[in-house]
Amino acid sequence: MNIPTTHRALLSRLLPADKPDDLAVRQGQFHIVVIGSDRVVCLPRTRAAAARLPDRVAALHALAGLDLGFRTPEPLLRGGAHGTDEAPFLVLSRIPGEPLAADALNDAQVADTVAAQYTTLLSGLARAGTDEMA
Prior knowledge:
This protein is of the alpha+beta class. 37% of the residues lie in helices and 19% in strands. Strand 2 and strand 3 form a beta hairpin.
């Protein structure tokens, strides 16, 4: 399925700075993610995933408030509520960067860096879990 063609009007409205044909598309288990230059659009693949969008927004707000030492995507807009004809979606701010290449972890220095980042993240989440706000 070609998401930019299927949702061309929606994506043109949500990602006005981008040309629909130039958008990167990633497909995960629960969402199709369309990556624009400064925003990301998450299109749920199932009704159940669409129903969980409000929880996803709440989780992202909670993570952002924990000051874990990394940037968290900011929810910007949610649409396609139940009972409307519009496809459900969530628009997030884009965090700059590129995915690691499939073989990047074969490099010991890269693997060590990623491991250190995961350790920092998991330690921060463990500390945050003791905070009532979390």
